[in-house]
Amino acid sequence: MKSLLSFFLSWLFVANCFANDGVIEYTTTPGAIASKTYSLFVNGKEIFVERFKDISYARFAFNGKVNVKINVVQSFDEYKLSPVSYAIPSQKSNNTIAFELNRSRKLIVQIKGIDEKLFVFADDPEKDAPKIGDKNVTSLLGFVSDNKGAELQTGGIQKAIDQVSKKGGVLFVPNGKYLTGTFIIRKNVTLYLESGALIQGSGNLKDYNDNGDNKTKKITYEKGALIYFDKADNAKIMGRGTIAMQGTKVKAETGVKIRTCNLRECKNAGIYDVVLRDAGGFNIHILHSSGIMMKGYKIINDLSLPNQDGTDPDGSNGVTVDDVFMYTSDDAIAVKADSRLCENVLVKNCVFWTVKSALKVGSDPYFNARNIIFQNNDVVHADRALALYAGKGNIEQVKFVDNKSEDVGGNAKQQLIVFQVSNAKEESQETERRGIGYIKNVQVINYTAYQQSPKKSLVSGTVSKDGALHKVSDVVFKNLVIEGKHCLSAEDAGIILTPKELPVDPNLPPKDIEKIKNSIAVENPLQAVENIRFE
């Protein structure tokens, strides 16, 4: 009997160990401030919750199934666990929310009466993570003099990257804080951040270079970045650590908007899993590149700063953005074509909370955008969920498939859908950016909007001064569901098909908007849209 009891107790102990082993804790980010609003437990193990700006967030990895409990410091009646499309059963007991997870998720918890949101980043375990001592793995510690964030380490970081690039391999960033200005990722380098590693961008403008080649040594202006992928084929940033800017500080002191990362003329490069924080401008700009994979990272910004686009493919061919989380003050995704054609972009399985547009092509792809797919994304909040803006450039062959939106509104336009051709660039001072384009061949399939937007959606072409129509054409809405209703007409969906007063680019100064409106006269505005179908 004793033997049987002993066996049972041993089995129970082992089972309990395996249950706890299902939770993988990350090392706390250096200098992290604990949330005073939330605490979080996974399988009974407390996970550190960090306060950052107006939100808090927790991050961990796990195997199998785990029980999650969130304790809130004050009493509350209502809460929301997003994305709601996940349909995760949850229970409230006093000040605690409890639920189970059996797969990786990026969640947003919102408590009625509390402005501070909680982000829960529950990751899959890392596979084949590099380790110091492995072949072709080099530790950054051999190149820097400080990993406490006290002294600038730009030179050491750059030297390490250059060294690894000679033969290719992994530059391993151990736990610690590394203060730096602009550095460049070279070809065949994987920059791997351990979970407690923090690459901290300097708060001093002079530590950033203007063009990313480290030759001019000039102070940056407008489009500088902390990290450049400069013709960096087969290069990656990956791991479970954090890359943090001081965008709020630099912008307040200098007015300059420093980006987090610029990729330029790269092939087969990518960014995976890391946390990107506090950009001063765009978070990630992908210029003239191909075969780019962006996967699993989390973007968290200070919403008080403008122009913090999440991830912008620009003039690139073959970009995938997969399973990414973005919390941004400006567009989450904005496909651009500022200097050449942008094509073959896939954005899928992402979670977005943005002040502006979530799934967007534009504002104006001057050199055309085509073959763009947005698939299975959850828009928790946006001013516009689906947006296509054409000025001089053309937009064609766009698919929105299986996307969902929750709260849409609260900013400039407050519309679920905006597909708009503008004549704002008809008389542009720049010859190559002068003209009016079109939008055609767009499919919106299985789009579910849990709430209607405050203002009506818009599908609108425009007219040039000579009276020529520039249309939005060949658009199909298939299984469009708004607030539970299958919409079979524009009226059902609350969509305006070209108003009598044709809209213009909302980014123009008010005086220019008024000038353009006064120049427009449309006798039959519905001719500016063609073949708009609802099924």
Could you list some keywords that capture this structure?
535 residues; mainly beta; Dex49a from penicillium minioluteum complex, domain 1; Pectate Lyase C-like; 51 strands; globular; disordered N terminus
Protein described:
The radius of gyration is 25 Å and the shape is globular. A hairpin with a 5-residue loop joins strand 11 (105-111) and strand 12 (117-123). The chain contains five helices and 51 strands. It is 10% helix and 45% strand. The strands form seven sheets. It has a 13-stranded parallel sheet with strand order 13-15-18-21-24-27-30-33-36-39-42-47-51. It is mainly beta. It has three domains: 2-123, Dextranase, N-terminal (Dex49a from penicillium minioluteum complex, domain 1, Sandwich); 131-330, Pectate Lyase C-like (3 Solenoid), CATH 2.160.20.10; 337-535, no CATH class.
- What's the architecture of the largest domain, going by CATH? 3 Solenoid
What's the CATH H-level homologous superfamily of the largest domain?
A: Single-stranded right-handed beta-helix, Pectin lyase-like
CATH fold-level label of the largest domain: Pectate Lyase C-like
CATH top level of the largest domain is Mainly Beta
Distance between the termini: 70 Å
Structural class given helices, strands, pairing? mainly beta
Low-confidence blocks of residues: 1-20, 212-217, 516-524
What is the CA-atom radius of gyration, in angstroms?
Answer: 25 Å
Bin the helical content. Answer: 10-25%
What is the domain total for the residues? Answer: 3
Average residue-wise pLDDT: 89
Largest sheet, if any? 13 strands, parallel
Quickly count the helices: 5
The global form is: globular
Proportion of strand residues: 35-45%
Sheet with most strands: strand arrangement: 13-15-18-21-24-27-30-33-36-39-42-47-51
Count of individual beta strands: 51
